[in-house]
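Hi again,

Forgot to attach this to my earlier email, sorry! This is the prediction with phenylalanine bound. I've pasted everything inline since the attachment limit keeps bouncing my files.
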Amino acid sequence: MEKIRKQLIEELKQAKSSQDIENIRIKYLGRKGVITLLAKETDFSKLSPEEKKSFGSRLNDLKNFAAEQLALAAESAKSSDIPKKIRELDLTMPGGNHRLGALHPITTVQLELQQIFQGMGFMVLQGPDVESEFYNFEAVNIPGDHPARDMQDTFWLENGMLLKTHTSAAQVRTLERFGAPVRAIFPGRCFRYESIDPSHENTFYQCEGLLVDENISVANLIAVMKTLLSEVFRREAKIRLRPGFFPFVEPGFELDLNCLICNGKGCPTCGDGWIELIPCGLVHPRVLEFGKIDPNKYSGFAFGLGLTRLAMMKYGVRDIRLFNSGDVRFYEQFAASL
Ligand code: PHE
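Structure tokens for the complex follow:
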């Protein structure tokens, strides 16, 4: 053992690089290393108890010693491995330019919404993108012959599932899972089989909201929408509420926002000066029933905020296609908002 120890020290002295040291480590401590074999090949049964004890402890010392010396040598080899060029780095030189990354504008708006709603006691949930016909349509009271079910609108998968066409698909999932009372938002991606133009995408984001409790009325819905809009825009945003039809709400509304790109004058993004931003309404009793909630005891409201549209309004983005374009020149403009 003493011989091995001396030899190891000698070899470490000669080592010039991390690779040399690694080779030495393998030679001594590797699976077939000198020290490893010494432990393996010693026939302990031939030793007396005292001999066993002292041999064992010396062997251990040697192993620890070797490991320690190797680690020290490896540490100091690291610095001598650094190429000369880097060692001569002049720390007084001015730094280079580093490009800042940025959150995707939709992510930024989503995080902001989450914060606002968490402040009002809402959970943040997420439904699956690949959804069943049941949750996407039937459970939200969209019967088989409803136009929203047309092949034109939905991406069907070969196995009979579909890509969720709206975040409302998670409404009944949420009711089943949490029962009532419940308040949750579920931001997510939606897919529709549509041709794209400056204001239509086949892949876009919505943020669904669902609140179910006793005695919930349209007044509660409007109060929450008002809080939401004033927090998001931090300035007065003109809105209008008009009746809207969705099979899963009754009554249903369209909450339109006066276009912030053209100030309501009318432009290619909004058309007539108004943007349909938040379709909403009181949850249809049938939806509650699908979620095993008693509609005689509970009522609620739901909304399906257009997250992508909201991002367009907030940042003055005129063309929805930019969001999924992958064009860094677009994304870079949001770096300052970090
Ligand atoms: N899911 C509807 C859509 O995508 C929007 C909506 C959600 C309407 C919730 C009312 C209530 O068009």
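The domain at 105-331 is CATH 3.30.930.10 (BirA Bifunctional Protein; domain 2). The chain has a mean pLDDT of 90.

That should be everything now.

G.
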